[in-house]
Amino acid sequence: MARVLRTSIYTCCLVVASTLFSANATPPATQADLAAVDKAALQRDLASLGAPITSQRGLSRHLSAGVTESPLGRLSQPALRRFLASLQFNESGLTTFRYTELEAELTPTQIYQVLALFGQQHQTPKLKHARRVTPLDDELMGGGIPGVQPANFECYFDQVSPIDSPSQCGGHHNYRCASPGTCSPSQEQICTNNC
Amino acid sequence: MLRTVLVHGVLLAALMGGPAYAQAVTEDQRSQQIEGFRDEVAALHTSGLDSGGVEFARRVSRHYETLRAHYRPMSTLTDRELLDLFKATTTAIFYTNDAAYLPDIVAAFDLLERRGQVTEKVRSDMRSSLVRVRAFDELAGQGLAGENEVPALRQAPDLNQDMPLVIRADGSGRPLVENYQWQKGLSVIVVYGPHCAPSKKALTAISADRELAEFFRERALWLMPVDDDVHVAAMKQLAMNPASSRVAVAYNRSSWPQIDSWTTPMFYFFDDGTLTHVEKGWRSDTQLETLRTLVRPHVASAEQDASQR
Q: Which of B262, B55, B257 is closest to B165 using CA atoms?
């Protein structure tokens, strides 16, 4: 089971990556174009390209298809209500979400699946108290999955550019996106890179 | 250290024992109180009040103090109630960073520990709270220091508790607690979140602007808010950036009355220590022009001074 899930996660990454690069292939990008691409933004795009939900409208559409078919269906009703009530979006996608219920009720693999709905799967290791059940859970939390850095990964900057660090370094733990471009303290929420 | 232990001992005895009349409070009433507290904090968030601000913290304090009066003495609480109280205290500390709540959280944690109710999450919350109120002795005493290494801090000689206090990584391996020295003329305090995307975008944009990068390198303090880390690695990394040579973490909120919001990023402009302008958030790089407008008179005057010399 773990192997199947891991394979599907890898496959998902590859499919999204190939989609991204094929989309960029016409017209072909020049070296200068490529150099201008912000690496962090590219990684964010990669995650959000595969994200089914990037707006309140998208969320409504997803929920109307039935929550039992969704990774969200693994949450209890009260937890689901609180989680959904916490979600905030802007034109780039999800800006804030509450993590407590995910951490309390789901395994890291299940959390990954929920957050992947919003292109925020790289935040999974931040929910460090989630109950680990499978080897895949351990890999997700330990940085064994491409694009998902371990929670203690030092990723403030590299020496070239302060935000040239991978996008998974974004996500201000215990903050929310209070207004555009502003992270405010908020217990049990995460302010994403879209803020 | 001995004084801290004695003071806490007396306070803990009072908190855990306490007057018998408090037993008249029923479990139902307490349950309503805790629900009420959660609702009030949630309502504050939707009220539009800045959750990094002073007024928000004051209101959380008020709600918490009403709540805790119903949770005494702690020894009479059920495990569930004790966990609820512990959680509420972590919330009060989260929004206020107020060391006045240290005896509360220590008493609740000790009792939870004696009852075998301390989970990994409770330990983690306890650790975060102790770092937020800078109770590093307690952190070591509770055996929580090792979870996410907090290096031993040094204190600068002649530390003035009434002046702004910062933690600074000076390369010695032991960060230094010292007073911030206000600069003469125009200076900036940038309240900066090391994991905050808008903060990073602001830093990137400022670093790429030669004029601003030079000004910010010389006249800005990049100040990280009090939270559950002392950010030694982040301070070192940030100081390598061309626009941010002066980097520190706020030691506490109370010594920084000039900063009325710990939302990130915030740009507080001071002239000879007097607040002249506040720029909140980083919505887009068009804000560079606002910063340039604020900085140019200083740059022009500095250039004039240099040419006259």
A: B257
